[in-house]
Amino acid sequence: MATDFLDCYDAALEEFSDELAGDFDFLSSSEREGWLAREWTKVAEGGGWEDALRQTLAKLRQTQLGLVSLESAALAAFSIVVRREREEPGRADRALVRASVLETLQEKRPAHLWRVEADVGGLPHGACYGRATWQPAPLNAKGGTLAGKASEAKVKAPSMGAQVTVLPQPTFLADTGPSYFWDGAPSSQVLDLGCGWSTPLRLSLGTFPWVYAHRLQSPAPGLAWRSNTTNHPATVAMRIAAGVWHPEGNLSTDARDVVAAWKHWRAATQPLVSALPTSPQSGEVSRDGERLVATGVSADVVGVNGPRGFICATAYNFIQERFAAFFAMRRALLRSRRHLSPELRELLMTNSDPCVRQQLGVAVLSLA
Hints:
The chain is an alpha+beta fold. The protein has helices spanning 13-20, 29-47, 50-61, 70-82, 92-108, 150-155, 233-243, 247-252, 255-274, 313-335, 342-350, 354-360, 362-367; strands spanning 116-118, 128-135, 163-170, 201-203, 284-288, 291-295, 303-306, 309-312. 43% of the residues lie in helices and 11% in strands.
């Protein structure tokens, strides 16, 4: 079923996508749903929540709807898992700020979500959260506090010496590079934002939960984005990440961003991967085509190491597969362009990606 639809982006993408994500007929409900189920399984296995997804898929297959509701059901299964870890009471607002920032990015730049670089001055709360801490009141001449007991100072008389100090903290880690996802980050024009930001916020949302280029070990850092009672940032991020390899999100994405990210990733990792053996050895990592293979040892603890840091095999394979899934879905949609729903055809028509326009032609598409 392979075509040359991806050659416009890069001649290597056809083979890359075939090996890591496979091809499918978008117009065949069984092929489309089977492909989506396999991709969700890869995501769940990489993040360690495959048991929850397996139970969800089993329930869906027993219903008359089959896998029609797969995306929402998979997101619900993931959300249940990540909500088990709650923010500490003193940091509950971190979940609020994280979720608010992600939702704002999704709303303001829906075509450019794979690899986000944004000035924090334009994001909710400056991408900072505040942690309130008590400072004890100064001692008097007799060794006691001017406000009496510390507990009384906190509750009854904070104005008599004990003070509440808000210590703003960055909500996300700085990812300044150069790295496997980015070149070196420029200094931000907004230098004093109250919590230490001096460079833009960088997040690789297309490869969530591996969102930071300097943190490609296991467990993935995005899985540590805890919830509070009402805000669930990891679920928001997973929805964004899954969206780019689901039809609507895929056709809303300018693939130039994804191609640029893929080329940077490949250039940074290929010298390391190509040096690995192709014959598996116990306790070591080897390469098998586009994947890394850990033999007799966990893929979480072995991988490749270079000047830009260590990448565990689990993270490497996961990131490779996310790129491949994006392009496999884009290819399937382009091939089926004449028979897509009106909503999907509208997204295709309005996508500014020059490869979409070059291969389809606005006039051809409007008459198809």
